[in-house]
Amino acid sequence: LVQIQSGIGATADEISWVQTIYLLAEVVVMPLTAYLTKMWGTRSFYVVAVIGFIITSAAVGLSSSVTAMIFFRALQGLFAGAMIPPVFATAMTVFPPERRVTANVIVGLIVTLSSTIGPTLGGHLTDLLSWRWLFFINIPVGALVIFLVGRYANFDKGDPSLSRGIDWWGLGLMAVFLLSMQYCLEEGNSEGWLDDPVILWLTVTAALTGVAFIWRQLVYWQPIVSLAPFRDRNFSLGIVMTFVTGVSLFGGTFLMPIFLGQVRGFSSAEVGNTMLVTGATMFLSAPIAGRLVRLMDPRVAMIMGFSLAAWGIQQGVRVTDQWGFAEFFLLQVARGLGTMVAMIAAQQMSVASLPV
Predict the structure, then answer these.
(1) Cα–Cα distance measured from residue 141 to residue 143, given in angstroms and rounded to the nearest whole number
(2) Cα–Cα distance for residue pair 262/20, rounded to 1 Å
(3) Which of 6, 136, 214, 270 is least enclosed by beta carbons within 10 angstroms?
(4) pLDDT for 92
């Protein structure tokens, strides 16, 4: 962000919106993807999303002003959010039961490597080329994805009849609810939370529209987001545990680069090299973690995984302004291994008792 800020002449407040607007757009579109993939088919929907992501990535990389970058980042976030849920859905529904653990392991690797290898690759790209290549790199990768999905992902058909009876009220309530909530979470700390009138009223708006959205999805004949799976106790508990693994993984992934960059003064490449430990640990341990989850009750595996991750995170309580690669090494190994085991177990629990 520092290099981007200097490259387009943005202020600190303006550059923060480059990240915030992306997340706002991403969060809003995610719940819609199940409905849209049913209507258009997974292959068609995914290819369109990737094409949009490539185009907007190029537009962000070519941006010369903060206004243009924020606009294209919002569009990029919409297409990015559209790509994520179908991957999980495919792993859960397309593969036979005996292959689902393997599929979940691979999906888990995608999730973890994106957030752990990403800083490493991004740091080196920024140092060797420029910050614009953080976005241009998506073009060749996206082209490969389009080819592979177009060739091999023809496993379902869309149902165009779903376009009739779209719940526009539910869509509007969901958008207002998620936008308000995400904005409060993103900006609340810097604005003093409820002391700020905008945060206060958006919190009230999020609460009211959130309740209204849930009620609408429960009573409407063709809901945008089906809440029926939450009646299954294993699914609900698995979702909660997946949320906890996300906090463990992405919380550290967010905080460590800030510490290493602002406190230690590491370069982008040095930050990336330090962050690589978690990603490498999760990548190497994934086959072992998958086999471990198969051999025992997922609840036992989750307890083991969360305990190890918690122990690893606890090692950071004595952090000083001199900590670097060596001091963070054991912490990252324990957190990465524990989170991987817990994540796969939580995903297995989520679908264990759902109807096929």
Answers:
(1) 5
(2) 20
(3) 6
(4) 77
